[in-house]
Amino acid sequence: MLTVDVLNVQNQVVAQVDLNEGVFDAPAAGHLVHEVVRMQLANRRAGTACAKNRALVAGSRKKPWRQKGTGRARAGTRQSPLWRGGGVVFGPVPRDFSIKVNRKVRKAALRAALSQKLREGSLKIVDQMELPEMRTRRMFDVLRALGLNTALIVIPQRDEVVERAARNIPSVKVVPVEGLNVFDVLRFEGLVIARGSLPMIELKVMVS
Known about the structure:
Elements: E1 2-7, E2 13-19, H1 21-24, H2 30-43, H3 103-120, E3 123-126, H4 136-146, E4 151-155, H5 160-166, E5 172-176, H6 182-187, E6 190-194, H7 198-205
Parallel strand pairs: 1-3, 3-6, 4-5, 4-6
Antiparallel strand pairs: 1-2
């Protein structure tokens, strides 16, 4: 087992905890992490971009002028892509960008990301993530005490006080265990996990 210090929000050691090696000492798996991050970013795309082609542009399909004898270039329709207001050639159409990645791969990538944070020394376990009041300043005080500029804070369940204290800080994100994901773990410099979240994280990432 991996033994790490448990801190309070003043960065004082209050206890120690044993971490599951299967979760926090997993081998590096850059290819799996890349695959899962690619999936997450692709699944966030709305896929609603749409341009009208010549079949969708409104207007008459009548030939603008006769084929020969006018001195002008021949034209068959006002919806031609060559004309102003005409259709778009090979324009974007609504599509689904989502990618499917197997559950075992997602779990393995998350274990690899958590283990990397521990090896880098960026993972901090706090006894309880509690704030005396719902103020952004209190969250800044916690980050300053822990020596972090950016952080992903993982809590056992939704906590309105902690979430609202952090929501005005772009460099901080608070998620319950169910929202823990590879992209957010990698995106922030530090990873702060409330002690009560550890058993839930083990259940989330271990292969069943």
